[in-house]
Amino acid sequence: MGRTMALVLSAAMLLWVGWKGVLVTVDLFLLENDAFALRRFKLETNGRLKADQVLKWADVGSGDNLLDLDLAQIKRNLEMVPMIYDVAVERVLPDRLKVSLKERRPVLKTFFLSPGHGTSRIVMKPYMIDEFGFVLSPPSENKGELSRQDFWMKLPELTGLTGLRLVPGQVAESTQVALAIQTYLAYRKSSMLERVRIRSIDISRKGVVVARTSDQQEVVFGEHDLAKQFRRWELMLDEANRKQMRLVQLDLSMKNNHPFKWEPKQRELQQGNREPQIVKRTET
């Protein structure tokens, strides 16, 4: 019995020593081996984030051992950044880390009351909304491109939000906001993108949105076939130009009737010295 116990203890000791040897070998030849030090970083993104900023958010530095990196933790670190919504992290031996991510791209901006920084005052702060309805914090609290005034100021303004509460870091649960986003995305895909600039989109009327352009056109869109509505808008604009008129209002929210208003172009008014004449017509 005593001899058997001694053999068991000896075997256990040998296993322990062997395991420690394995750990030392792993540390020496893998985790402390300069051959696996991070030297190259590849970033794939649909936006404009820079590699150095992504590495900082990921909490990874040049020279870190590639085999010792916790890829799941790196993924979590990057997913905590509000402007990033999808992340994939890959180890490419011997010395490269690959990160693929998708950035949130704001499509609209809006303003609502928020506490002023360091004061008890309530101020109007700008917020941004991406194509999925995700509300991004004010530009001053973001990094990179989203913090630049010349970027977010160009975004169309979402108006008519009375009674609607938007929470930064959450998706706006509103069919009206969703329709506004769909309308703007349809505009971005249409040929009207090269002809007019949508300045604001109003969502105060249920079931429709009202787009206002920088040249004072007002166009009402419904929920049906937005691509077709934009083609109709372009046709109406072409007809107005042929007649030397300026399109003022157009209602595309109905499938068969499209009430509109137009007026003589300002240049003709000055030459002819006559008052603007508003023309109304309904097409079927």
If you had to describe this structure to a student in words, what would you say it looks like?
- The chain is an alpha+beta fold and 284 residues long.
- The chain folds into 2 domains: 34-103, Ubiquitin-like (UB roll) (Roll); 107-281, no CATH class.
- It is 32% helix and 27% strand.
- The chain is built from 7 helices and 13 strands.
- The strands form 3 sheets. Strands 7-8-9-10-11-12-13 form a 7-stranded mixed sheet. Strands 1-3-2 form a 3-stranded mixed sheet.
- Strand 10 (218-221), helix 6 and strand 11 (245-251) form a beta-alpha-beta unit.
What is the count of helical runs? Answer: 7
Q: What is the total domain count?
A: 2
Q: What overall form do the CA principal axes indicate?
A: elongated
Ends distance: 103 Å
Number of strands: 13
Largest sheet strand order = 7-8-9-10-11-12-13
SS-derived structural category = alpha+beta
Low-pLDDT runs of 5+ residues are 16-31, 271-284
Helix content: 25-40%
Task: Specify Rg, calculated over alpha carbons.
Answer: 30 Å
Order of helices and strands: HEHHEEEEEHEHEEEHEEHE
Beta-strand fraction estimate: 25-35%
Report the average pLDDT across residues.
82
**How is the biggest beta sheet arranged?**
7 strands, mixed
In short:
The chain has 284 residues and is α+β, with helices and mostly antiparallel strands.
Architecture blueprint of SSEs:
Elements lengths: L1 H30 L8 E6 L5 H8 L12 H9 L4 E9 L3 E8 L2 E10 L6 E9 L4 E2 L12 H4 L4 E3 L15 H15 L8 E5 L6 E5 L4 E4 L4 H17 L2 E7 L8 E5 L1 H7 L6 E3 L3
Parallel strand pairs: 1-3, 7-8, 10-11
Antiparallel strand pairs: 2-3, 4-5, 5-6, 8-9, 9-10, 11-12, 12-13
